[in-house]
Structures are given as structure tokens and as C-alpha cells.
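QA checklist item 7 of 12: single-chain prediction sanity check.
[x] sequence parsed
[x] length recorded as 147
[x] structure emitted
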Amino acid sequence: MRVIVVALALVSGGANAAGTDPAGMTSGEVPRYEVSCPSAATAAERCEIDAGTYAGWAFYSRYCESCHGRDAAGRGAAPGLLDRVLGEGGYHRMHFVVANGHEGVDGIMPSWAHQRAVVEHLDNIYRYLSARANGDLPAGNPRPPEE
């Protein structure tokens, strides 16, 4: 069984000297996730994850899946999110786009700043997407963490 605890590093280029990125987001610690999967696990159901990552999956499923796909690989006009979570700006870029929306060649992402549940659980959604993007959590529905 492999156990993975990850503290994701900030990608340089987002924060200025004042500790905020150009969008006014404060630069803070990037959320961590914990995933433990059997060595040959190919489905999330076989893995154990921390409560924050599980909450991220639940909120992603409720608010993001309909556009970005069940496993965050993209669907229709909405792009996949796995490569974007690990891309330039990662954590801070995700906060900016969710808060402000985005219009690009992939389509239009509306602002979710008005949706309190999304804003309050954005770090958890990032945990889930990061675990998927890093290959530490296979696709599928993870089981709830044991209390």
C-alpha cells in the first residue's frame, strides 16, 4: 500500500512583493491532501482520503462536474482541469478564475463568487483536483474517510 501526503508547491510568477497576486488574492499555503491507495488501485473506491479531499470531491461533483466532467477531464466546451491545476499559477489561478470567471478559446466560465458553498470549499476542491492531477487518486467515487 502506498501512502501519499502532499504539500503542493506554489508555481512562481503569481505573487508580487506584497504577498498578493495581480488579482488581489493573498498568497498563502497551498492546501495539502492525504491519499492512501493499494499499490495497484485503479478506482478511487479502493483508496482512503482525508476529509478535506473527500469534501472537495463532493463539492466538485455537485458544482463543477456538469461542465468539467465526472473526473475533471473536460466535457463539451468546458476544459479539463487536471492539467490546469498543475499549470502556471495553479492554486492562485484557480481561485482567480472561480471568483472572476474567464472567457477564452475553451468557452466561458462564469464567476462563482456569489455561490458561498463553492467559495468556502475551494481549497477542498483544489485538494481533490490536485490528488487527481498528480495521479495519486484514481478516477471514480472515493469512499468517505473513516472517523
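[x] summary fact logged: The two ends are 20 Å apart (CA to CA).
[ ] second reviewer sign-off
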